Amino acid sequence: MKDQIQRRRFIKQSLAAGGSMFFMANLTSLKAEKKIKNILANETLQTIHNLRTIHGNFSKKNLTHDQIRDIVDATVQAANSSNIQTYSIIVVKDRQKMQNVCGYQGGCMLVFCADHNRIHRSAKYLGYSYHSDNIINFVTATMNTMLAAQTAVIAAKSMGIDSLLTNGLHRGDMDRVWKILNLPEKNCFPLIALILGYPTEEPVYNKGRLGGVGVVHHETYHSLTEEDLDEITAAYDDHSTHLALNPDWDKQGFSHYQDWLYRDWLDEASNPINQETQMFQLLKRSGYVDLQNES
Amino acid sequence: MKDQIQRRRFIKQSLAAGGSMFFMANLTSLKAEKKIKNILANETLQTIHNLRTIHGNFSKKNLTHDQIRDIVDATVQAANSSNIQTYSIIVVKDRQKMQNVCGYQGGCMLVFCADHNRIHRSAKYLGYSYHSDNIINFVTATMNTMLAAQTAVIAAKSMGIDSLLTNGLHRGDMDRVWKILNLPEKNCFPLIALILGYPTEEPVYNKGRLGGVGVVHHETYHSLTEEDLDEITAAYDDHSTHLALNPDWDKQGFSHYQDWLYRDWLDEASNPINQETQMFQLLKRSGYVDLQNES
After folding, report:
1. Cβ-defined contact of B133 to A273 (cutoff 8 Å)
2. Which residue of A has its CA nearest to B72?
3. ipTM exceeds 0.90, yes or no
4. Which CATH number applies to B65-200?
5. Can you tell me the distance from the alpha carbon of A209 to that of A283, in angstroms, rounded to the nearest whole number?
6. What is the mean pLDDT of residues B11-22?
C-alpha cells in the first residue's frame, strides 16, 4: 500500500515535470506504470513512448529550414548496408503537392524511396557496371530506407514535432507519385510519406500496442494456441488498451473489436486477389523483381 | 574570431559533459560543429548521432531480462498500418543460435520478421477469411517491421547498448533461418537480425553519411549532373568524412574509394543476374508474391 502511494506520487511528479496526455490516458493500469518507469529512464525512451500518429488535423504551421535540416541530418545516421545509402528522401514543402502525393498535408513532407540510381550513376561514371535488378536489392534498400524513416520520426518527436507515416502514396493511381515527384522509372520505388507538423488538437490518448504473445517470441517462433487467441481477442476488446482503430466497435453492435476489424476494415476490396497488383507491376517496371524481363 | 573561440569552448564543455569518441574524430570540420550543435539540442538527437554499428567484437556480457523488456516495450511503439502489427520479433539469448542464424553473436538477438500469421489465425478463429497473398502485404509488413527495428536500435542506444543490424540471415542457405527459429513457411518472412550488446573496444570514429545531393532532394527528384557525381566521388575520397568501409583504399592502390567499392566490394557474385534468387523463391513460398501459384 505504501509502495502504491509512493508510485502515485512518482507519477504525479512526472506529470508535473512535463507529462503529456499519454500519462493521463493510461494512469490506471499497471502496464502504464511500467511504461512510466521506462519513460523516466531517459529522454529517448520517453520520446519513443510518446510517439503518436496525427491524421487529418495538422495545423497550418510549417517546419523551419533549421528544423528540416536537423531532422534530415539525424535521419541519415541510421545504419545501412555497405554504407551506400540506397535511398532518396524528397523534402516537400508545397502543401498541395503533399495532398496529391499521399492524401494528407502538414508542416513538411519527406517521401522515402528505395533508390539505387546514385549507385548506378556513380559506378558508370567511374567505369564500372552495377546492377540492382532483383528482389534482394529491393528488400535490402527498403530496409535501409525504413530505418532512416523511423529515425526521422523519433528525431522530429524529440523536437516536439508530430508525424504521420502513410502509405497513401500506394493508393489510387500510384504512377502519379512518379509524375509529381519526377522519380526515375528504373531502380527507384517510393515507399512511404512522412508528414511532419503540429496537431490542431491534442489526442486524448495514444494508441496501444500488443507486446506479448503473437508479437514477441522467445528463442523460437511460438504458434498461437486457442488460449492465446482468446487472450489477443480480449486485449483488443479491452478499451483501456486503446488498441482499437475504432473505439466505438461495441456501440456499433460488434461482439469483438476484431469483428469490426476483419469485416469492415481489412476488406478484400483493397487487397486484390487472383490478379496482379499495381504495386507488383510498378516493381517490375522499376527492375526490382527477379527476371522481370521475362514476365 | 571571438565567435570561433566561443564555439571551441562550447565544444570543450560538451566533451567534458560526457562526449564520446564521435566528437573527437570530427572535431576539426565545420560539419562536425553543426552536428555538435544538434547533439546538444536534446538527448534523443545526441543518441541518434552517436549510433554506430559494432561488427565482430561484442563482449561476452549479456543483456538483462529488464533491458530486453524495456527495449521490446519501446520497439512496439513504432507506428504501423491499421495497428495490426504485421511482424514478429524473436528474442534469442542462445549465442550459438545467433551465430547460426546471422553469423554474429552478442548480448541478445532480436530477429524481425514480416508476419501475418497472427492476423490469419485471429480472423479464422472469429470466422472471417483474410488473405495476405500479394506483394502489397509484404511491402507494408516489411515497412512496419523495420520501423519497429529502428526503434529498438535507438531505444537500446539510449540505454548504453550498441547494435548490429545484419541481413546475414539472407546469406547462405536461407531456409536454415526457418528451421532454426521454427518459422511458419507461409505468411512470414525473416527480414533482419539485430544483435545488441557491448563492444570489446570503442571504435575510433563513427562512420559518416552522405546527406546532400543524391540522397536529399527538394520538391522533386534531382537527377545527378557530372558536377554532382564529382562531388560525391570527392566526398567518399575525403578521409575526414569516414564514409569508406575500407579506409585503406588509397594505400591499396585505388584512385578513388568508389573504385574499391564497385570493383572489390559490390561484386556481382553476391548479386545473381539472369537467375531467380533464393530470396524470391522463398518469398513465393511465403505467399508474398503476386500470383505465385502460377509461376
Report:
1. yes
2. A211
3. no
4. 3.40.109.10
5. 31
6. 32
